[in-house]
Amino acid sequence: MTRAGLWVALAAVLALANAAVFLWRDGSAHDATSPMTTGAAPSPPDSDPRPADTVATSAALAPAAPVAGTTSVAAPETTPETPAPAADGDAGTPPRLLLPVQGIALADVRDTFDDARGSERRHEALDIMAPAGTPVLAAADGTIEKLFTSDRGGLTIYQFEPTGTWSYYYAHLQAYAPGIAEGVQVRRGDVIGRVGSTGNADPAAPHLHFAVFRLTPERQWWTGAPVNPYPLLERP
Question: Measured between alpha carbons, how far is 231 from 111 in angstroms, rounded to an integer?
Fold first, then answer.
């Protein structure tokens, strides 16, 4: 091989070596910054962690009218989906709750928990119809854990009860009550907000979307197992 040929061959080898080093560095940089390799803990969502998943209408939520010639029968104290509530709550059952809308009778509240919402979703809450601006009450003692605004839920409140086992979720609020802030302790019956139709609620049908869920051991406000609130509401 001539000297010129040797120089050409050497140059080719050096070019291949440089290319290999570049590819190795480029691959290492992507691996180091990939979210799959950081091991970071999940972050709270930035929208709709527990959405009010329906556009409620006054016709859909109006109390059912009694049928002529029949006798009204009181709603049962429990349902198959929810165990009988304990008077003061325990590890297995939530405490009894105050109906969280001022001036609304239990007889005027429909049990909308587990109603179909579209073809794939179920309703995980009660929709309590009331005029816009009606005071929303804390259903039990606890702490305001999170104030959150979402596309579907609108203005919302997440309240934890004292043991950190249960969370109460209030959605579609028109406004928060004065003094309500994250970390504030509230007592059962305190005014915490006003009924509204923010989020995806029908402006013609203001209501409170009220949910109860069991917190996970991590006590993350955005997740938990839903429980039917209706059997937990205290009857007169």
Answer: 9
As a whole number of Å, the CA-based R_g of the chain is 28
Model pLDDT for residues 75-93, shown as the tens digit of each residue: 333 333 333 444 444 457 7
CA 35 remoteness from chain centre: 25
| pTM (2 d.p.) | 0.65
Give 116-125's long-range contacts (Cβ < 8 A, gap of 24+): 117/53, 117/54, 121/53, 123/53, 123/54, 124/50, 124/53, 124/211, 124/213, 124/226, 125/52, 125/169, 125/171, 125/209, 125/210, 125/211, 125/226, 125/229
User: Which helix (DSSP H) or strand (DSSP E) does residue 124 occupy?
Assistant: none
pLDDT digits (tens, 9 = 90+) for 152-179: 899 999 999 999 999 999 999 999 999 9
Of 169, 91, 79, the C-alpha closest to 128 is: 169
Which CATH superfamily includes the segment(s) 82-232?
Glucose Permease (Domain IIA) (2.70.70.10)
Q: From start to end of the chain, where are the E strands?
A: 116-117, 121-122, 126-129, 135-137, 142-150, 154-160, 166-176, 185-186, 191-195, 207-214, 225-227
Domain ranges of the chain: 82-232
